[in-house]
Design brief:
single chain, 5 strands
Length: 233
């Protein structure tokens, strides 16, 4: 089994691209490693759909083949991002927060796996992080390893032993500060990204949700000016 295209051609990778800081950095890492990247975003009924415009901008600048797929996770509910539930503001929590979307990364990776098999792309990149994150269970290394094992049992290319699939998580053990520093070294334009879970009309970031607070903290600790426009600055 191989992770390279036949004939020694450039390796292909599917990169999950939400439009946020982490996924933009992940795409930059994959490109820097020499992959031909195919970026994938999801319109899943999220309240922060401004991230999709950001993903499109990032993909165009990177020159990737980009797809946006629609899957309505509002039908499942259970999250402040897909249901009529308030997004927590200025609140520290010890439990999995209400912004967790049930099975989101499992669903996203399943779609990415299907596209990767069609493309004959042996690597799938996802910008999950287990250090400076919001407590989501599907950002943990244990989940990623389990999904990779499942992937290689589930698809034809793996069963026929023509390709083995890897789930790549280059940011999983980095702090937000370290992620930003890595992205800056790779030329990521963070002004093009969107992280806020509860943006104001027009797309201004709230500055108070978990995602905004982690973003601001990361830029501050990295000693880099935060290019984000917040409602309250």
């Amino acid at each position: 089994m191989t992770n390279t295209a036949a004939g020694g051609a450039t390796r292909k990778a599917v990169v999950l691209l939400s439009g946020g800081l982490d996924s933009a950095t992940t795409l930059a890492v994959a490109l820097a490693e020499g992959y031909e990247c195919f970026s994938l975003s999801f319109d899943y009924g999220q309240r922060h759909r401004y991230e999709l415009s950001a993903a499109g901008r990032i993909a165009r600048k990177a020159g990737t083949v980009h797809r946006e797929m629609a899957i309505d996770l509002r039908a499942l509910g259970g999250s402040a991002l897909t249901a009529d539930i308030d997004v927590p503001k200025n609140h520290y929590h010890d439990e999995i927060p209400v912004t967790y979307v049930p099975a989101r990364n499992t669903i996203f990776l399943a779609y990415a796996l299907g596209w990767a098999e069609v493309l004959e792309a042996g690597d799938i990149f996802i910008g999950v992080n287990a250090v400076d994150y919001s407590g989501y269970p599907d950002c943990r290394p244990e989940f990623i390893q389990a999904f990779e094992t499942m992937a290689n049992l589930a698809v034809r290319a793996a069963v026929e032993q023509t390709m083995r699939f890897r789930i790549r998580t280059p940011l999983i053990h980095l702090t937000k500060k370290e992620i930003i520093q890595k992205g800056m070294s790779l030329g990521v334009d963070y002004a093009a990204t969107h992280s806020c879970y509860d943006p104001a009309p027009g797309g201004l970031a709230c500055g108070q949700c978990d995602s905004c607070r982690l973003r601001k903290k990361g830029f501050s600790e990295a000693g880099v000016a935060d290019p984000t426009h917040y409602v309250r600055e």
